[in-house]
Amino acid sequence: MPNLLAFVPGPATVMLIKQSAKGSRRNASATVAGIEAGIAFWGLAAVFGLTALLVASPVAYDILRIAGAVFLINVSNPKASAFAISFLPQLARLPGHTPG
Asked: The whole model's pTM is what?
């Protein structure tokens, strides 16, 4: 399933095409760097315990959920970030936790 999602263009692809169409390789490279930095940030957040915090604290989960909704309303639907937030935490191994 994740492989199929990689082929579906999302807003990151649209933004990259728009920056490339402007004719500047520098703009396109900066766009790619920004997209990848965002994905890396969410992946690291999942690895370093954001997932455990959100599972343990309903208040923290609600705060992040509301902040995420506000972000999505302002920026549209960043598919790559949504994928990283929803899929990558499933790969994290919590100490003392055995998958069921």
From this structure: 0.50
